Structure formats: C-alpha cells, structure tokens
Amino acid sequence: MASTALYQQVEDYIVRHIQDGTWPPGHRLPSEHHLVAQFGMSRMTVNRALRDLVQQGRIVRVAGVGSFVAEEKPQSTLLHIASIAREVRQRGHDYRCALIAADRVAAPVDVAAWLGLRPGQPVFHSVCLHLENEVPVQLEDRYVNPEVVPAFLDQDFSEMPPGEYLVQNVPFDEIEHIVDAVLPTPEQASHLRIGAGEPCLMLTRRTWTRAVPVTMVRCLHPSSRYRLGCRFDAVGNQRLG
Predict the structure, then answer these.
(1) In a 3-state reduction of DSSP, which class is residue 142?
(2) CATH says 75-239 is which class?
(3) CATH architecture, domain 2-69
C-alpha cells in the first residue's frame, strides 16, 4: 500500500501541472533523475508513475530524449463513416496510406458469416496502415464482397484509401459499428510501432446496400493516439466537431 501511495504522489503532481495548464501539450517533463531527487523516492517508483501516465495517454516517452505532455488525441465519430484522411488533413497534418496487402482470398469462416457468404467463397481482402505525420494511427483490415464491388482490387489505394473509394462509389443504406478494447497481436503491434501490451481500440464496421453486405472492416487504433466518440442532441441529430 505504501508503494502505491508513493508513485501516486508523482502521478498526481504531474497531472495537476497538466490540468492547470502549467505544462501544455508538448512540454518536456522533469527527468526521472530530477523527480527521484525531488520526491526522495526510488527510480523504480518514479518509473512506475511515468509508465502509468503513458498508459493513461497523458504523457509520451521518447527513448533517450525524455517524457513529454501528450497532445490531445483526435476523436472520430461513431455515427457516420469518417474519412481518416480528411480528419488528419483538417488538423493541418500530413496523411499517408501505406498499402500492406490487397488480394483475392478464400473467405475465412468468421468473415463469411459477417458478409453472408459461404466459407471458402472468394472475397477481396485489403490491409493498410494510416499514418499521421508518419506516425501510425490506424491499421485497417478489410474484406469486401466481390459481387457488389467487382472493381475493388483495380484501384490505386495510395491515391484513395479503400474506405473512401467504397463511400464514394458504392451506395450504402445501413451501417453497423462495434467497438472493443483489445491487445494487438505481435504483427499488429509491429505495424503500429507499439508494444504488444499497449491497449488498442478495435472498431468493427459492416455496411449493406439494399440488405446485401458490402464490406466488413476492422480498424485498430492505439488508444494512446486515438479515441472514438460522438455528440448528438436529445432527438438524435448528430453534431460533428
């Protein structure tokens, strides 16, 4: 219990300075050595406090450089299909889509069930990484019904990401969103350049056109870099911001 109280003191000290604006986003925190001397605690205790603050998304740590107050995480709405490219550019940042895979595969059992197909039936599959200022913010793993979108694999997704292409070219009349908190697989963590133990938000989306499934996509976001949410009034009208 004593150990918990000690590292909590360091956390509370840092959080107070962030919340009252003394330390704005991007501000460099005192070094571990400085905090150890200031609080008279062990390096292990101070390190525990800093690790917790990283997991909470309040600070970021750069190896060999120091710890910094985290920028506010961008928020994406859940009530429509947002364009991540547009969101990033509206913040004045550079956007890039890196295509990892795009091919025709046999539908796995779970994907077949999601898209109303038979297991093993041909389905289009794409994987791409969305980057903001060259930092990965979303790993997109998408399956597309080839009967609805036969030209999907003919597109240049470096020019127009898969999601934007579908929104602009395939009419849809129903959307389903499911959000889960997950841990990334080693491969996913490698793509996103995060630790295997860093929590992520998984947004699973399906769309339909005239009751026919169009696509199923899983969008994985590091929780320290992104958040999902929306605001709407009492009668259900969405407010974007």
Answers:
(1) strand
(2) alpha beta
(3) Orthogonal Bundle (1.10)
